[in-house]
Amino acid sequence: MMRFLALACFAVAVHAAVPTTMQAVAIDAPGDVDALKPRSLPVPAIGANEVLMAVHSAGVAVWDLQIRQSMAYIGNPKYPYTLGSDGSGIVVAVGASVSRFKASDSVYGYCWDNPKGGFYAEYVVASADCLSKLPRGMSLEAAGALGASGLTALSGIDRALGIKRGETLIIHGASGAVGTLALQIAKVRGARVLATASGEEGVALVRRLGADRVIEGRSGDITSAAREFAPKGVDAVLALAGGVALEKCLDALRPGGRVAWPNGVEPVPQTRAGMKFVPYDALFGDQKEQFAQLNAVIEARPFEVPIAATFSLAEAPAAHRRVAAGRVLGKVLLKVR
Fold this sequence. Notes:
alpha/beta; Quinone Oxidoreductase, Chain A, domain 1; Rossmann fold; 2 domains; six-stranded parallel sheet; 16 strands; 30% helix
C-alpha cells in the first residue's frame, strides 16, 4: 500500500506543468569523473513517435565509464552529452503516432545513444520503440536497473545459447548486473546452473537467486566444481567476464558445447575446435518483442533485480567511482526522483 501511494504521489507530481528546463548530468568533453557536471538543460521537444518521460531511476553501467572517458561506441556525439542508456519513470506525454503508451504509465527502457539525451536527467524524450511498460509486480526503482542488463541477459540465454530445459550451464560472473538476471532467466528455462560469483557476498546472493552450484570465481576450484556438476561436460557457458577463470570454465565444456559473451567483455574467450563461440549484443530484431519476452519471463516466477548501491543524480561521479571499483553485486543506480 505504501509503495502504491508513493507511486501515485510521484505520478501526480510529474503531471504538474512540465518545465522548460531540467537538471541533468552531462559532459562537455571526454574525461575523468570530474567531467561529469550538473547542468540545467532544455527539456527536449517531443516527436510523433516519441515519449516524454519523467525519470525516476537511471542505471549506471560499465560502458557509461568508457563513454565518459573516451566517447567509446558513440559515433558523432553532440555536447553537452547526457549519459545513461537505461532507466525508468512515468510517461508525461506521447507523440501523435504513439498508441502503446499514455500519460501516467510506468515505463522502463533501453535507449542506446539516444539523440535527445540519456537517462542522467530529470526528463527523457525517447522513441516509443525503446520503452516498455513495467513487468507485473516490478517497482520503478528496480526497473531502472532492468533495461540494458535484462535484455543482455535474455539475448544471451535465449538467442545466443538457445538454452533448453535440462541443459547444464556455467554463468561466469553471475553476481553482476547481467549475471544475476541471466541466472534467473536460465532457471525459468529449466537449466541447471553452475555460477561463479565475486566474494562471499556474491556467492550468497547467487545462491539465493537459485543457482544449483556456486563457486567463488577468483579463489575457488572451478575445475573440480565443474567436474562434479557435470561429469560429461557442461552444455554451455555464458561468459560475462574474461581471463584465466573463464578459460577454466571453458575447460569444462563438452564436445560441441556453446559459448556466448556480450560484446565488450575483455579479454574475449579463446576459440577452441569443435565448440560454438557466439559474441552478441543486447538487441536483435524487434525491440518491442524483446521487451515482451523479457516481461513474460520476469512474470513467470518471483524475480529480483539486485541493486548494489543507489546515488542521487548529483552524485553521478560517486556512482562512476563505485562501478570502477569493481565487485558490484547487481547494478548501481541513480535515483533521480
